[in-house]
């Protein structure tokens, strides 16, 4: 509302998936007590969709097989930068089995990012969409792609953001290569004064690479028209976003588009927006009058559906001898690819450590490469890597323990908006994590060890929103046989949404989990909820489930009072039975209540309440890495990660650990091996398969210990849950970098910290 | 509730589809003004599903075609009464293409009506289910039916209820042939005293035949299992009832069963319960591991899925010379078929006309025939035929105009529960109807005309519940592009539910109908609502739609107040725009409100409020028939029907007239031609196709004039709507009978009033 203090992050240029404002406040329910006093919530409960997934009966988008279905492929640019002069699709159309070919010539003009179109005549990166083909089989469609003849004018290209920022660089968009024309800037206090007051100063440049999401399940859409109604099965993190994108692209109302996604094999941000492939599938389905399936292959995924922007970050930090930070500056730039996506990474830098004098200037830069997309904690992974590396360096300069240094500069409140946190238990996370990793065993002097294998311990700090918020709705249907359907405005990425929704409903209604069905991922069925990104799902949805279930309990209590002719305040609810406190012989089971009032199904709708005004909601945590560096080969082995976090209430310990395992191994991938490489001479991506693009393997998995220091954040919602998707991943790379530093005495200032870089650094140091 | 005065009818033994009790009162909204002040409601708006239906794109259950689907048929008894000694299915199973055969021998015992089972070893009527077969094609399944060998012990049977009531009759169930063992009785005042005070007395016996619903669309189920989840596409008037029946039969929780029905070609009560065919389809699908479709043919529909019980009604009525009714008695019996269904028909007799002394005794009797089922106004059509025939006879005895006689005995309040009506405009209906038919032109002396063709005018009076009530829920989703989805807990029989739901939402939100999608008929998607029977759909659902839409408007107003920084009471809502009353330059369209508060979809759930306590809700009406009797052939031609009714508010004039057209032509079928005939010697039904069972044709359609005298009933709900499905049909036959009486001077006391009966009566009179 007008006078609501609403903290929005700067990192989402498109559909913001985090905080929101509720116009209608929903009553908060009494906060739950600690988990040990709850029966279902917080427990180690296996995921309820586990059998379906492990038995292979779970249907993913690719498994959707409609009668008479056609198959589609996309023709993509082989040029990094070009202008199309002509397209001839005659030969492709004449290939037997080809059903339809669409290009910019025969479809309505559909606007896409900024000044571009679905099929644009200006090509801005290798892999950009030029045409779509539907055919009887995928093989025929693939063959037909090669029969399309294109004449282009090749343009000079740039694939390096540092070069792209220059005036002389080829322009990717008319407005120049700096997104928005200007850098993002931020300043508090007086940086120059702060530096003057410092006893020790460091000035360093760190850089991070572009990584690609590469979820297990490929991006896929199946489109089917029924008259003017379109159904799309889509592998997406955001059913309602896809609905909106498709509706606007095709110029049909949203209620004529239904988007379905039951199961999903990961997204990590690459499936947060509606993809061009989805709209192309819908257009081809319309044109052919048949259902159309369009699945991207691994090469397309590595070229065209998003990536984490790279970064070059120049930091200058000053501290007094006692460890007090006096000044910090952060100058950075990163590539957004050919289309707009934020490359900013300064939020941790501005908020994690107490510092009165801070200056930030950062640029997002267009280059001729696949578009950047939010990737598990946009900006935070790269920002934290640089910041926490610099902090360790600075602590070393004044001979201070890096953890002690962090505690010295502990921020009690948010420094950007100057408001308190709803809760912050980072100190407890530091203490618990340090104890678990054996912080005292670290090398007091970095690199002091001897021999081929050197070990070290390092840490990184995490901050992230993750408080969720409205709008998020849940419809709950209680049937007379005490089976329950919960329709939640959400979708499951594979993170366990099905399970925690059932847990919360089970906790409140005291009905066994087995009696509860959870329905997600269908815009035609579920009410509404946010995209599953930004760690908002559990903090947004779980309170709405609780609200719906509490309303249901109230309905049952009210009805029972009438049926038993007792006062409501004389009644108690336990295991689905309402009993009189004064006369326990009077009791009635919920099915019987429903029978008496002739309501075979009771229905409630719950909603996520508004977040408190004037407070900052953040998750906090620290990860500690214990690594071994092979000084002969340069190979780093992560032996153990301790993750100690404040993420509010744990809904399910098993699912929580799953999330941490995934986040940490993805952090190891970022830290040590993953990298998209573009050949600067040709503008071609060299890493378009999983042989060339190195993902971590099961053999790279360290021992992981997860410690949660929080019991819930009662200020934010009735469940007090914060999200964990991003927090689990943010500080891993920083912790590993600092552990390598602790082991070897040298900092690797560029990710991925591959053996060649480690060896190079070691040789320069010796 | 305990202290809620709750009026339930006696006519529904199974799932009651009419009144209910809400445990949680829902706020009533201000009643709407008369229709002429509304913009959408009440107007002649074509049905929104009209194009789908007339173009053939609408999918009915039979159109559901799943990959790998098998086809099923049911083996039915050829004996009216028998005990199965053995079944040998070997040959059937060995027929190539047969996938599964189920009988009582290889499925779990599934209880059905009373003491019977899904597949019972005791056969109680010709057409009863014995086995189910699934095969690759329907033809193979049909062929396999003939290969099942059955040995039975044939039992004596009875197909006449009068005979069946006797002690010596063959027993169809252990407890004897009178359902419940005793008659239903009712008495008020002192009948014998009333008769003593009468100046004129008549004593007559009327009888009505069994008619079969025979909807256009055959009964059909498609069952498909996905693990332990079952989806059933079913041609049903009651998705939630079918869900319950299937869930209980298969012993699985209700949330594991999803019942879907999008379009339907009529039911008239025959599709109100879950059918055996649905459970058989589910069992065969489980056994074969494939989807199974099972469609009944016309013969099966005429044997086994319900019918309207016949009746024999002996009436004794007394009146004073001035027309005051002094006493009425009603002794009746009717057949329920082989399984329990109420044959009672005395409600109109007890309530339509003011009379202090009334006595009723009525029996429902088992016979060896297909089970009775509710059929468009259970009991009322046959009861009204007898009652209104007797009234005309009695009026004639004292030389009083039958309409004057009815007005003389006008009941101002309900006489059974001695409570007022929420509204009653029967007097206005009488007046308007009489005027429209030209009542003054009727034969002052019945039968006075001369010549081959004699004409006459007659009337009948209608009473019926039709007030609806809770539980009925509606979820409304407003999208940012001001498209709307309304998910209503209901299903459409073909009566226009899709359309009126959209109208009500459009009226409140002031959004064009084209922007509104209505979703019905899917237990997995819609909240909850009553079966579509008993004329409850529009009176139950329309207030829930209005409630959901009004809540949505309130949400928008509240949000707009905050966004515009104005007070809510300064705001006015018009055409989706909220404006300031004091400063009209300040206004905001709903999409912009939603954008400002970052809610891409707003969700509300509405519910039907409780009916008022201590009041009787009834619909009222009178139909007037103008007929021509060919005294040479005995053929009756209905020239015109005027239907004048009090049914609360008209939601859609076009749909209303459609309902009346259907109800009246069905009334003509009942009055003049339809009849199920069983051969008493063999126990076999002789009318199992539409050649032998005579339905009215388009050529039988009279001129119809529909007059609605009511503007809404603000006491019952926020829309003030009463149902019209039953009211449209109830008095037609009585009006025709009285018109024949008026034309010829003789009463035909038995329906259908076929030419042979007319000629016989004329010859006896001359």
Task: Provide keyphrases for this structure.
homodimer, 766 residues, Aldehyde Oxidoreductase, domain 4, 18 helices, globular, disordered N terminus
Instruction: State the low-pLDDT regions of chain A, or none.
Output: 1-24
Estimate nothing, just give the exact number of structural domains of chain A. Answer: 4
Order of neighbouring strands in the sheet with most strands of chain A:
3-5-1-12-9-10-11
Structural class, from secondary structure content of chain A? alpha+beta
Number of separate strands of chain A: 28
CATH class of the largest domain in chain A: Alpha Beta
Question: How is the secondary structure organized here?
Answer:
The structure is a homodimer of 766-residue chains.
Chain A: H1 50-55, E1 70-76, E2 82-88, H2 90-94, E3 98-102, E4 122-123, E5 129-135, H3 138-145, E6 149-154, H4 161-164, E7 184-188, H5 191-196, E8 200-208, E9 220-226, E10 229-234, H6 239-250, E11 257-260, H7 276-288, E12 292-295, H8 298-304, E13 311-319, E14 325-337, H9 347-351, E15 358-366, H10 380-397, H11 402-408, H12 426-437, E16 453-464, E17 473-479, E18 484-488, H13 497-509, E19 516-519, H14 537-564, E20 571-574, E21 577-580, E22 587-589, H15 590-596, E23 601-607, E24 619-630, E25 636-646, H16 653-672, E26 678-679, E27 684-685, E28 703-708, H17 732-744, H18 755-765
Parallel strand pairs in A: 1-12, 10-11, 14-15, 18-19, 25-28
Antiparallel strand pairs in A: 1-5, 2-4, 2-6, 3-5, 7-15, 8-13, 9-10, 9-12, 13-14, 16-24, 17-18, 17-23, 20-21, 21-22, 24-25, 26-27
Helix pairs in contact in A: 6-7, 10-17, 13-14, 14-15, 16-17
